[in-house]
Amino acid sequence: MRHRTALTCMCIALWGATGAAAQQPSDPMSASLSQGAPQSSDPQLKPNPLEMLRSFEPPADEEYTLGRGDEITVDFPGRSSMQAKLVIGPDGRITLPLAGDLMLAGLTREEAAKAIVTALTPYYQNLTAQVTVTKYTANHVLVLGAVTNPGLVTFEGAPTLLGALTRAGLGTGPNKIAQLPDRCAVYRGQNQVVWVELKSLMQSGNGLADLRLRRDDVVYVPSAADRIVSVLGEVQKPGAVPLDSSTTLASVLAQAGGFTAKAGNNPHIQIVDPAGGTSRVISFKDLRNPAKALEVTLRPGEMIYVPQSGFARATYALERLNPLITAATFTLVSPLGPL
Length: 339
What we know:
wza like fold, 2 domains, nine-stranded mixed beta sheet, five-stranded mixed beta sheet, about 30% strand
């Protein structure tokens, strides 16, 4: 009986540590937000914010995967006449004689070589292949905002935050010395955004200032006057949207390109304030109903999340808040746990 009681207490403690509380946390170094789950008071069970930021990084030794636009050379040892120089098309495919179209995007060099051999095996015996990337064009990130040359930045190796900012052109401070921005945001896909306090990290000598990025990440550098909100989830163009005196929730959603098909006809839009530790949910049906006359005031720094259809009753946990790094990843949770 004592063993069962101890096990029950342990499970309750662990559940409380991973659950989120719909109130502002007392610990400024980490916070978690959802609705109705208890918050653990045991500091040993609280995640380390720096470790969470490290988890946002790809592994240092992660192997390169081929992407659209990459130029490759395929060599066939012992069959020099078969050597082929190819460009991976916008659909991620190449075209091989006899074998036809073959999807290579997302494969490593070794995986691509095996796929090519498999495709050609019906036509050749004892075939081996070697794939070399002769020109990298797919390994890029997009840098926007207060930089000299906003746009795509291409890397041959792993993209990094400082590398992307340097190539995009930093502003200049006194004595025309390049000036690193105080902070910037990294958007990844539809559901992740990380705010990195660059100046604080650099002053502390923390290597996370040069955060490793993934292909197609979007880096946004705000100017001192920028007032923005972040739009995530099922919208066509996730990212930063500037605020002004005429900005409304509907106009923000429009600037984000509108909803994807997965959002459904009436998404329940969640607006999260990381600084205040609060959230509110707005039905899109109510938002566009003139009789409701909803007035939704947006504040700089808030995050607007559009969930997939069918999860209107779910909540979204906002985690990883601390003075040096504000990393916000929305995770769908239900009464049965994460989906």
